[in-house]
Amino acid sequence: MLLETRQPMIIDLILNNLMADLKSTHLKEGDKAPDFKGYDQDGVLHQLSDYQDKKLILFFYPKDNTPGCTAEACNLRDNFQHLKKSGYTLLGVSADSAKKHQNFIEKFELPFPLLADEDHQIINAYGVWGPKKFMGREYDGIYRTTFVIENGKISKLIEKVKTTDHAAQLLG
After folding, report:
1. Residues catalogued as catalytic
2. Which residue from 117, 111, 104 is spatially nearest to 45, judged by alpha carbons?
3. Which domains are assigned to the chain?
4. How much is the CA Rg of the chain, to the nearest whole Å?
């Protein structure tokens, strides 16, 4: 029981400390947000222009159904109403397929769409793909990164995402 309670904290510690030396996105707060077009789990097209008058939380995560990504998505789910009341709209992005996203959404009852960026168009535009190191293994993957976009500009950039407390990072 104690391990279950501490597991998300351990995951955050591992992800933040072991990956701290990795290259980060080329974008910064105040930059114009790169335009994007992508399809969600239901085949609905989303593009930056759809969110022109909204505060968009565009969060990139490595993979559906993995411990850290599940913790992050569920934290955002559990705080979805608070985020919505604060005027935010959420869009998740990973390289998983629409079918995997649909299963992930159904399994964890996620109330926000997930874009299937299998060709890495959005991921590359936001500079969140590159070399990673985890437990001595090197590979290419998505850097867990969140952008808050308002009026076409990046108003907030979070590169050290706390998977179990991400909503607080966004609302704080």
Report:
1. 69
2. 117
3. 2-171 (3.40.30.10)
4. 15
Beta-strand pair 129-134/137-142: antiparallel
- What pTM was computed for the model? 0.85
CA atoms of 130 and 162, how far apart (whole Å): 20
Which residues touch 6 (CB under 8 Å, ≥6 apart)?
A: none
Structure-token match 């769409």, residue found? 113
| Whether pLDDT at 148 is above 60 | yes
Burial 128-141 (b: 16+ CB within 10 A, else e): bbeebeeeeeeeeb
Cα–Cα distance for residue pair 80/18, rounded to 1 Å: 29
Place of tokens 């959420």: 90
Which residue in the block uniquely carries the two structure tokens 């935010």? Answer: 88
